[in-house]
Amino acid sequence: MTSDGGVRIGRWAIGAATLVGATLLAGRVSGLFREIQLAAALGVTVSADVAVLLLTLPDLLVNLVLSGGLSAALIPRLRALPLQAAQALSRQTLLFVSILFGLMALMLVFVPRVWFSLLAPGLSASAMPSSAAIIATAIAIPLAAATGVTSASLNSQQKFLVAGCGTLIFNLIVITALVTGQYSSHDPLLILGIGIATGAALRLFSQCLTLPRAWLLGPITPSAVDSIFIRGFLTTAATASLMLLVPVVVRAFASTISPGAISAFNYATKLVDLPAGVLVTSLATVALVRLSAHYASGDRRAAKQTLHNGLKRALTNAVGAGVLIAY
Length: 327
Hints:
This protein is an all-alpha fold and 327 residues long. The chain has helices spanning 16-42, 46-65, 69-80, 83-110, 112-119, 131-156, 160-164, 166-182, 188-210, 227-254, 261-297, 300-326, and strands spanning 7-9, 12-14. A two-stranded antiparallel sheet has the order 1-2. The two termini are 39 Å apart.
């Protein structure tokens, strides 16, 4: 690994942005194959609608509550703090989100109809998945939240590779579950739920193995509460959540149109997510870490140049991707 988060292999050096882009590409391509397998197994049906809701529920709840606020506030704060203070903040945040989303998972298990009526009001009661499938999916909720913290901790140390491979690991397990469910006599939604929980667990486990032990094990005391991080998180989370609510509301309306509308909407959005995630998100991930380092050192000129370069590359990539999709 190079000092800026890239990888050096002999004479060849792979930059951090390229590395993140490659891992995101692998994750997005595996996500595309996941949707292809989902369409092959369930098509555009009510069962496909329920499968989409189960697949997206853990990350959706995490994103709506934490959204971009976690990484946008946590990474700069971890870069600015001394090492031991950063490790304490990481441990404290990990414990808090695990408890919070563990409680949300229990709510899903005990009152699943309330959750599904909010996310898909047009879904009939007879289409509800089994209790076992809901429990399996609920297990993934605190695991997904914890992964958000470990990913931010890894990225703050410019260890982009393992964090970037998290989506790939998750999708490969889910694809395996979809194939198994397609050719099994058991409930395919239950098998999918087990796959979601297993994928979330392996994704988190891979990141915990990479993080130094001091980032996971150590004292958590009230003195470690960081008001600067909390204020930054609340500000960014509130803004980002409003943007994330738009596709959620559209999907909820789609559920009232006809059976299979949720899955059809999901398949369509994935076609846009693939180029956007690879060509733009990779640059934003690396730029955030570098901007945080410049901010912590007070180097405004370097921060301005990093922001300028990142915006220029992101706009160039976005325009190029838009032209290719249009044709």
